[in-house]
Amino acid sequence: xxxxxxxxxxILATAMALLKSGDHIVSSSGVxxxxxxxxxxxxxxxxxETSYVDESAPSAWKAALRANTKLLYVETPSNxxxxxxxxRALADLAHGAGAVLVVDNCFCSPALQRPIELGADLVVHSxxxxxxxxxxxxxxxxxxxxSW
Length: 148
Hints:
Blueprint: H1 3-18, E1 24-28, H2 33-42, E2 49-53, H3 58-64, E3 69-75, H4 87-96, E4 100-104, E5 122-127, H5 129-132, E6 139-144
């Protein structure tokens, strides 16, 4: 298995648990390329649409919202540019629209960034062997706030 397979399976499991045909995702445009492929090529086959926005423009996120938007997805820091975004503002926007904010926290460990404390609903984190202490281990972790 390729290393990115574990993180991608975590993102797919999150999408499958939260979305159904007819739903809409608003995602930052700077997400990992495999995430774009998942959202645009795989989920679209099941009737889930995705809009990509300039993650640094809060007005773009708001303009992309639709009545059927169920998920806002952001990778922060982004891969590979390591851009950091306002999780609290995105959480407020998502919750105001009745959507869920999912943060891909791949580049930061929970020791450095805690998106749940900033209002995110769910956090996806791919943990390579360096965080587990086992040379051959790979894992994906999910965190949810109190309502999950």
